Predict the structure.
Amino acid sequence: MPHNYNRQLQHRAGRGENTRIDAMYQVVPGNLPAAREKQSKEAKPLICSVLLGVLLIIAAGVAWCYYSASLKKVNCFKIDDLELYEDGFIIKKTDGPDLFEMGFKSAPINLESCFKDETGVWINCTNADEEVDFFIETLKPKDSITCFNIKWRTEVLDSAVEHCMYWADGYWYGGAETSSQHWPIKLSGVVDPKPYVTGDVHSLREGFGGIMERYWISNKSVAIRVNDSVPLHIGWNSSNREAFCLHARYKDSPFKLPTGQQPFVHLSYQVCAGSDMKSIHRYMAKKHFKKPEVTPSESMFMYPLWSTWALYKTKVNQDKVLHYAEKIKKYQFNCSHIEIDDRYSSSYGEFDFDPVKFPNALEMLQKLSKDGFQVTLWVHPFVNYNSPSFVKGIESSYFVMDTSGRLPGLVEWWNGIAAVLDFTNPETKDWFQKKIGALEIKVWDCFF
């Protein structure tokens, strides 16, 4: 069979059919490159479309990254260890925990209006809607201490500014004397902002006492001091978080607007953070509080101070004072200071001995001094309305006036209703010193 097939092929070739057979076998290999070229041309638009799509996706991703970064810049300004947000600021250690957080309760800040100076020392922001001018300045008084001066000023008439410190994760100390004194400070209940002024906690249990500073310090080595020019009110826990709020306003307040000044309110304070609580307190105390110019007598610290109040309260007289001194000597206690306390005078506001209770005060004082006692006398700034000096004080304008400026501001203290001597008035100071000077002639060592 194979031999016959070959002979047939040879016979056809002899008849001129060889050309057609060759052509038949060359059709496939001869046309293959042309087909591939056609397919390649058709694929080019598809490949270009895919590449363009990939480039668009990459461009969109890059644009999103830049957009996100721009949003982040608008949402926060950073100056040293302070991060400023629309609703407050946070002070934190580098790569560490938050040290201090303050919230802007009265109004937010428009961060798009904020700008830094070229040195990066301060930030200034404005808010056209709220008419707010906000300023932060950073200071570096020591390598281990960083301070921030904060000032918020509003140009809205009779408005208020309120910033709240969040204390949930720290212990705070300082502030004012209160009827229930907690150490550290304990914020209980909800208290609306009330004037941060001295008062009598014996009569007004919810108020503040006679010892007060605009200064607080925490166990996280952060301290804050509010400027004296601020019409300061204090409240706490008025939000869902444990918060201690600094509130500034003139309206419905005992604070009097400075003469010639528009009723625009400002809240300004300094926040300082240090390496430890001791160093930050030393810095703040040195900067904001003056030390006594005269050192008290060493015996005041070394030996007992004997007070007539402990035994006699207001029922003190000359015989009781001398008997008290004899008992101290009898039991061989140290004859150090003896204080003649409350109600030695005829009334509150008369700074001299009641001649009925102390018929010979000079002789008593000389006897005490001879026995080795240093004599102390209790004095106060109150002049009760039933004291003879009350009329003199009104006629001579010796007293602190009420908000109207026409009448003395009467207060209720634990010994009655009284006016308060205004020691910012030089005439009041001179009158008081003359009264005290008359007592010093009678051999006094000091006054309480």
Notes: Confidence is low (pLDDT under 50) at residues 1-9, 11-15, 23-28, 69-73. Residues 18-75 form the longest helix (58 residues). The two ends are 145 Å apart (CA to CA).
